[in-house]
């Protein structure tokens, strides 16, 4: 079968299965789970793998599920990634009433498109024409939330790193994969849905900050206390005073939350805790801005005599989309969406652990604009369901065929010229350089 005929057949199969695809996405949407806790979602993936006869590994980085479909040869392996977790947004209509988790991030759509591609590859017999394997990888914990909880898992030895792909890279789960594809949903302010090719995005360092003061009666004896909440507020103000020193091209961001601000209103706050990220566009800018922010946070404690503990944790690396892989994807996206609806992306100030993967293998992370309402907000709704679930899966499937068809020349050409930004060893070394408290 010729390549274009195979693409057409794959697209028809995905369209024919649309009701199953929608149903899976809706099922995951109704049972959102936070990172490293996605047991129900992982079970749904496993059930479909068993139904399709796909061999798989489970329990990777606690909840990850990795299925492999063999080609006529196994020269190279291309992975499609889908994320299992939700984000915390208690005000969203689809939020879990207990945990506050909600799929206002689009990850439920990612898992559905992942399974749509796998089902179509098998039903059409497409793997007989591909000189490589396809990995369907449902990965945990992309949203870097509940930092204290995850740090406790790390201290207990259950994980080493706080992000799902970080942990999977560390465990060797990507060692047998050559390149990776992933689509993420995006808010759309235009009339029609469109694809934005990925470019670059910020990385970040996770932070846990503790201010230790001294309790005293807030009205009768405030002079006997040391107000840890005031220390935290001064620390945040100190960071704000440095914002003009952050270069615009570095896209530095610092956005803390206070997770513990005191115990009783009539007691001087003794134990105050914050979580935050320090984000920036490059690894060098991350390191430099992190030093400045730590200095300001410590100064808040010094100002009132409070003790300060700052724990820097490995966050995510900046995202670098592989341009050769982007071009292969572009050709298929233009067929599905129209050339005018495929645009080049600009730098994103947000972050993803797919950035970590992009440092060690060719990776792309295009954005599909089909959502109304802001990401991670209560207004988030998938406005164009067919585009989100069906066209996205078709674009991924067509790209896989381009890469692996025949003797897999397209994949070989990309890998022949590819030089990783970091080896796996250097990557782990960099992560470990931030895994410290001071």
UniProtKB/TrEMBL annotation:
Q: Which Pfam families match?
A: M20_dimer, Peptidase_M20
Question: Which Gene Ontology cellular component terms are annotated?
Answer: cytoplasm
**Entry keyword set:** Hydrolase
Q: Name one GO molecular function term.
A: para-aminobenzoyl-glutamate hydrolase activity
What is one GO biological process annotated to this record? folic acid catabolic process
Report which superkingdom the organism of origin falls in.
Bacteria
Q: Sorted alphabetically, which InterPro entries does this protein's record hold?
A: Amidohydrolase, Bact_exopeptidase_dim_dom, Peptidase_M20, Peptidase_M20/M20A_hydrolases, Peptidase_M20_dimer, Xaa-Arg_dipeptidase
According to the entry, every stretch annotated as the Peptidase M20 dimerisation domain falls at: 203-299
Q: What family is this?
A: Belongs to the peptidase M20A family.
What is the name of the protein in this document? Peptidase M20 domain-containing protein 2
Q: Which organism's genome codes for this protein?
A: Pelosinus propionicus DSM 13327
